[in-house]
């Protein structure tokens, strides 16, 4: 299975490259190797694969196989968010909630968690609801309004 995946990844298939990165990242059928994971995630991410962009951003946010870099994590999460990736929305919510690579902003964090939940990420709703306990009704209303208006930027 891994040999077939490797062949497809080497052939330039972004889904296969992302899957191979996951195998390396999690040590599934291969020795865990974050540098190899980063290599394959980057190949797929550069081709616009949203899942690989989130995975690559995660490596940067954890400093695994890539230098710890909130700005790079943010860059890749934003790229995936532009494609309406639910996990990317949640990762951006976490970055704003904790003030990682951006000024801490609970309204912005709530908005991203809200979008993530709307796109099917169940844990994002829990994060949003926990965050809301530290916000005013006005802040929550603003976050909800921003989430309703959000659209990917046109490039």
Task: Give a quick rundown of the structure.
With 155 residues, this protein is mainly α. It is 71% helix and 0% strand.
Query: Can you count the helices?
Result: 9
Biggest β-sheet, characterized? none
For the record, the count of structural domains works out to: 2
In round numbers, the mean pLDDT is 96
CATH class type of the largest domain: Mainly Alpha
Helical residue percent band: over 70%
CATH architecture of the largest domain: Alpha Horseshoe
Rg result:
17 Å
First-last Cα distance: 38 Å
Any idea what the CATH superfamily of the largest domain is called? Tetratricopeptide repeat domain
Structural category is: mainly alpha
| H and E order | HHHHHHHHH
Taken as a percent bin, the fraction of beta residues is under 5%
Q: Give me the count of strands.
A: 0
Outline, from the CA principal axes? elongated
List low-confidence stretches: none
